[in-house]
Amino acid sequence: LLVFLGLALPGTQGKIISRCEMVGILRRNGFEGFVGTTVADWMCLVKYESGYNTKAYNNNGPSRDYGIFQINSKYWCNDGRTAGAKDACHISCSKLLNDNIEDDIRCAKKIAQEAHGLTPWYGWKNHCRGRNLSSFVRGC
């Protein structure tokens, strides 16, 4: 019973992707220069949004954020509970909570492309925008 309860709790621990492993994933998936961003921007975003946790979850009241990029259920994914959800990435939010982040990557890039940058993410706006982020990729 405790195992099942642990899986259902918000913020449940998923795979924590190491810093350099995440840098490699972002580089291989074309994030450097994508819509004017850098891998360092994305690394900072992921750190402050999810702490590199693939199963990160945050309840925002009427909507929820899911996965390593904290993708919101009001606009981007379908959790079956968010009134007026748009589901612009055409994905179940639950698919953003596993260790395979390929679908998370596709949706995050769609969000950034539509926004022409990373402004939809408050973690990036509040902690990363306009700062020297070289430490996020240094040594990787």
From TrEMBL:
It catalyses: Hydrolysis of (1->4)-beta-linkages between N-acetylmuramic acid and N-acetyl-D-glucosamine residues in a peptidoglycan and between N-acetyl-D-glucosamine residues in chitodextrins. GO terms for cellular component: extracellular region. It is found in: Secreted. GO terms for biological process: cell wall macromolecule catabolic process; defense response to Gram-negative bacterium; defense response to Gram-positive bacterium; killing of cells of another organism. It comes from the Eukaryota. One of its GO terms (molecular function) is lysozyme activity. The keyword Secreted applies. Its EC number is 3.2.1.17. InterPro entries: Glyco_hydro_22 (IPR001916), Glyco_hydro_22_CS (IPR019799), Glyco_hydro_22_lys (IPR000974), Lysozyme-like_dom_sf (IPR023346). Residues 89-107 form the Glycosyl hydrolases family 22 (GH22) domain. Keywords: Antimicrobial, Bacteriolytic enzyme, Disulfide bond, Glycosidase, Hydrolase, Secreted. Belongs to the glycosyl hydrolase 22 family. This is lysozyme. It comes from Rhagologus leucostigma. The gene is Lyz.
